[in-house]
Amino acid sequence: MSAGNDFIWLALVVLGGLLAAALIGLGVALLRLREAEEKILERESGHGSILDRLQENEFRLRTIIESEPECVKLQAEDGTVLEINPAGLRLVDANQPADIIGRKIYSVVAPEYIEIYRENMRRVFAGEAVVYEFRAITLKNRIAWMETHAAPLRDARGNIYALLGITRDITEHKLAEEQARRHQTELARVARLSTMGEMATGIAHELNQPLSAIANFARGCIRRLRSDRMTVEELIEPLEEVCEQAERAGEILRHVRDFVRKSELQTRPMDINQIVRAVVKFTEHEARHQRTMVRLQLDPKLPRVIVDSIMIEQVICNLVRNAVEAIAEANSARREITIHTRLFDDHAVEVEIGDTGPGLSEAVIDQVFDQFFTTKRDGVGMGLSISRSIIESHGGDVRAESGGTGATFRFTLPTSDRQAKKHERADSIHS
Questions:
Q1: Which pLDDT tens digit goes with each residue over 306-318?
Q2: Burial class (CB in 10 A: 0-12, 13-18, 19+), 320
Q3: Residue 15 included in any domain
Q4: Chain-centre distance for alpha carbon 390
Q5: Are residues 43 and 141 in the same domain?
Q6: d(Cα 198, Cα 207) in Å, to the nearest integer?
Q7: What are phi and psi of 143, to 5 degrees?
């Protein structure tokens, strides 16, 4: 009986131990579960806080974008407008977001600029930030000029998923540019008229030579015909000379007419040496009257330049006449003007006009191209200012130098090679 009780007692002790161990394990498990729950709650609380901050940042960003006075938009790679702010809606004359969101941006781009717009979008989705201008036709058929600053928008993995664009209306700026250009063209024409008025004596002299020759040949033919001492064959040569002189007179008149005509800038490939020679011939009488020699040192192997020849003639004419007047006013002992043409670099030609006049002081050399600044007693200070505008409108540069005796003016003009490369780049954008 004692052995049986011992066994039962031992079994109860073992069972009690196992139960205690189980209770301890359960307590530990419950404790760990509670710790896990607390950690989960902490994480959820942290995630909620992060989510709240993200939502707050998104709200702040959206508020900024919506209050931005310029158009802010997101576009997909195919041109679909994903988002646009209220300023953007006003810019394209949309009454509500649905009028433009979900549609292709090309619906408000002028047809001739669609390919340019596509090329710039391609560059953005390739990772570039670009700035481009285009003409737009709004949803209400209003025509406007736009400028867009576009940059790629990337996700967390660095993949570009949208174009972020800021667009503004530059129509007024474009109109102001056009008005300024027209105003400058008109100023240049008035300056040419003034120049022609001052050069009237030289023009009359130039015309007088071919007209006198025509009259002399015609009278000679009449005298010989009346005396019956001239055959038909002998009449051909003097009549050909009459025709040649008449054509020369007509060419002079045509050149004068072109020089003073009112026209837009019309550039084409030209031989700069030919332009220089035409101006020298034009100013020859005035230079000779002031006992001034004009020497030419022209590089015969220069590429053609892309210019409006009449405009560039005006620049050279202004510089040559200024040199003649400076030499005459200073009564210089040595009276020479030298015109050089040379290759400036691979894409530009330089024209240099130097004289043996009194030169320019350091105090005024930086002002000579300013409007209304002049060193002449009766000057109005417009010739060099207009000349600089003309050269810069051709994509060139002009500067003045003076060292020792005399003044030197240099200007550059782009060559046809440079223009061809620009066209090649433009064609690659359009294609």
A1: 988 878 888 898 8
A2: buried
A3: no
A4: 14
A5: no
A6: 16
A7: -95, 130
Q: Which helix (H) or strand (E) holds 341?
A: strand 336-345
Separation between Cα atoms, residue 339 and residue 279, nearest integer Å = 11
DSSP state of 103: S
Phi, psi of 321 (to 5 degrees): -65, -40
- Name residue 359's amino acid: G
Backbone angles phi, psi at 350, to 5 degrees: -110, 140
Q: How far apart are CA 105 and CA 100, in angstroms?
A: 8
pTM reported for the whole predicted model: 0.45
Q: Which residues contact 124 (CB under 8 A, 6 or more apart)?
A: 130, 150, 151, 152, 160, 163
pLDDT in tens, 198-240: 555 556 656 666 777 787 778 778 877 787 776 777 777 778 8
- The C-alpha atoms of residue 365 and residue 383 are separated, in whole angstroms, by 15
CATH of the domain at 281: 3.30.565.10
- Separation of alpha carbons 323 and 321, rounded Å: 5
Q: How far is it, in rounded angstroms, from Cα 47 to Cα 67?
A: 30
Query: Domain check: are 161 and 287 in the same one?
Result: no
Report the number of distinct structural domains present in the chain: 3
Whether residue 272 is found in the same domain as residue 355: yes
Closest CA to 235 of 245, 247, 249, 222: 222
HSE of 157, CA atoms in CB hemisphere, 13 A: 2
Q: Based on the fold, state whether residues 40 and 163 are members of the same structural domain.
A: no
Reported as a single tens digit per residue, the pLDDT across 76-127 is 999 999 988 888 899 999 999 899 999 999 999 999 999 999 999 999 999 9
Domain hosting 37: range is: 31-67
